[in-house]
């Protein structure tokens, strides 16, 4: 999901990092002295966490647990953001697939047991995350949806895709707004990213026929995306934006002709781009804005506080959702055999418990022995 070809277009600006090294270096200097008073804060698009794997009881939930356990081994405060009621029902002409309600409930239960925070967006999670990043509530957005860049996220993490079985699954690709603008092979500002979304196509429109990301990127480097962004930011409604678009489209056609794209210039639709689509990217539905700092400040304080794991609660959830015991009737969590649920937690979670406590990121509730 996201803008067609955008990840490919911004690839030269991507930086590969070990997530653990990045978060530890955020908190400590090389000599071991403290650098930051709060852990690195990552906002995660919840839609991209639960991916079904065909194994065992409750496969979707089981996959979710393994991913949460993996995140817990990173000394960072995690905020999962879920899509809200104002999210678009249709994208790319198809009904949007959302996290099933039953999985959302269990997702939040497990996230809470790990000590992670959850938040429901007004509309799309990636738009909410971008706003939280701009406001300084979170330090980075983790998503596979390139729309987060278009919505204005300052720092975006994306999973490192690899065919090998080494530690690359613990690495991320990081994209920064400054890096996208300054890398000569990319040179895309926020306005340029908006132009990419409109011309290449994405969740809200099909784009411009026969206009790929390379042509669009050259157009963006002429500043027409920045002009459109300024107009869309300051206009009050679609009618005002329509008035601006008339001369703007003529300017774009002239640029295309100068670039040697005469056929594309001649066939450029007079009603493109749609003002509604432009405003969907520039003014998405979000819970709060810079003009209303109260709610994000409250959320920011939560993310600055210690997040404690509740091992007893986590063991209880694993035992009765995954069937990791050796069978028989349910028993009190303290008497579950270590070769079952507690053995799994020891292998998957205890490393994170040690790392987080050594870094001072987390408190530990209900130690199980």
Automatic annotation (TrEMBL):
UniProt domain XPG-I: residue ranges: 112-175
Mention one GO biological process in which this protein takes part, according to its record.
DNA repair
Look up the domain of life of the source.
Eukaryota
Gene Ontology molecular functions: 5'-flap endonuclease activity
Pfam families under this entry? XPG_I
Q: Which InterPro entries match?
A: 5-3_exonuclease_C_sf, PIN-like_dom_sf, XPG-I_dom, XPG/Rad2
Task: Kindly indicate where the leader peptide sits in this chain.
Answer: none
Q: Protein name, please? A: XPG-I domain-containing protein
